[in-house]
Specification:
Blueprint lengths: L1 H11 L3 E2 L3 H8 L3 H13 L3 E4 L2 E4 L2 H7 L3 H13 L3
Antiparallel strand pairs: 1-3, 2-3
Helix pairs in contact: 1-4, 2-3
């Protein structure tokens, strides 16, 4: 979930994301209850603020620490693809 939040942050260019748990669940291929559990854990840890349909990333570095190393790989590949215009 951390990787998805960071990717959405990159695309949106901001820390405020209009995302529902249902959307995140579909994008990650998991059940909405799993997203709810993880979002609650991230919120309790102070990494995000979450209310119905809206997520605000409060601690980008901590979210980055929670993401897999593939986040940097995906981001770099995306940027390489865009620079080939």
């Amino acid at each position: 979930m951390c990787r998805w939040l960071l990717r959405m942050r990159d695309l949106h260019e901001g820390d405020d994301l209009n995302l529902t748990q249902e959307f995140l669940a579909q994008m990650m291929g998991v059940r909405r209850t799993s997203v709810s559990l993880v979002a609650g854990t991230l919120q309790k840890a102070g990494l995000i603020s979450y209310r119905r349909g809206h997520i605000r990333i409060l601690d980008v570095e901590a979210v980055r620490d929670g993401a897999c190393e593939c986040y940097d790989t995906v981001k770099a590949q995306y940027e390489r693809m865009l620079s080939r215009k």
